[in-house]
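Sorry, any thoughts here?
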Amino acid sequence: MDKVSYHSVCRWTFHAGKGGFVPADAIPEWGKDSLDTPACVEMIAQEIVPRLPGHIELGMELHYDYEVDEDNAAATADALASSGIHLALITPGAHRHFAYGGVASLDVGEREAAEEFGRRTVDLAHGELRKAWHPDPGKAPSLVLWNGSYGYDLATPAIAEMYRNLKESVADLCRYEAEKGGDLYVAIEPKPNEGHPAMLLPTVASAILLWKRLQEEYGVDLDRKGINKEFGHSEMVGLDHVYDTVEETDNGMLVHMHVNSQGYNDGIILGGPGKYDIDHGARINGMNVAIAGLIRQAGYGRWKGHDMQVRPYDDRRQALDRVVRSILSWEACELSEEEMDSDLLMQYLAQRDTARAEDLIRETVINAYRHFDRMYKG
């Protein structure tokens, strides 16, 4: 097979348990004192990579500063480089530190601290972690700005000032990264809620608009700028993540993907609009087949991340297996979509013969399950 497919797994998937309403110690082997980030890389290399087809290259996603920092960056980079796993994404874990808006904060001290936190993330990516980048510049890591700290809970006119702060801070960070070489892909990951009741940049459209405004107001070069597409964030408020893909690709702003799911749309697992962020792995369904077709047509060839949580009752074996299943499920959607007769589908749709179009899509989904079974058993 000539195709190479790029998938990435997230350090934050491999933890002992979420706690709160579910156990915090379901997988004690993955406790914070038992599994550090270099050891996690080695575990992935030994227990996940061998179960994947040979045409899949694997990357890893990390939060600064609680998964990778100045103290463990060199060891993490060595582990990645020696295992053939590349750094696919790094993100400032600002939500752990800044509860009043982060870089958008109306508290000058918090805003300055959050901005410095972002610069340290850039420094680490371009510094100690550089040896773990993929050699292809088109597969360079994404610097993802998750809006989890860009939030508020009071309806006041000051929200406009927070938005101005956000624009200025993101523009400054982009300039800072450009001074380091500009090799990272900078992506915004929209989310409608969590960790605040209301968020700046809640949707794909609002994040695209922000980039356009940064170009107009601050002269930010939009090359290597765009969206980290997160299926579940759209699903959880009932938005259309298929159409999100159209907006992202039409604007040339699909930079990174998180192909996890809320799970409501395959008729098997529960979740969906009005639920919290469940973060199931990728599912095989018609929507994902459609998205696979859209990104293929757009020529997307970067990382497809699996930002997922295993079930709160999983043991270590089953948790690792869920990650494998997520990767193979998305891969199966792509393989089956490539085999679908797209001309016939367009013919049916042009003739308003939507029942036959449904039949063709259903056959494609069934074929994706066959691909999954073949790869999973193989």
Observations:
- Residues 5-337 form a domain with the TIM Barrel fold (CATH 3.20.20.150).
- The chain is about 45% helix and 15% strand.
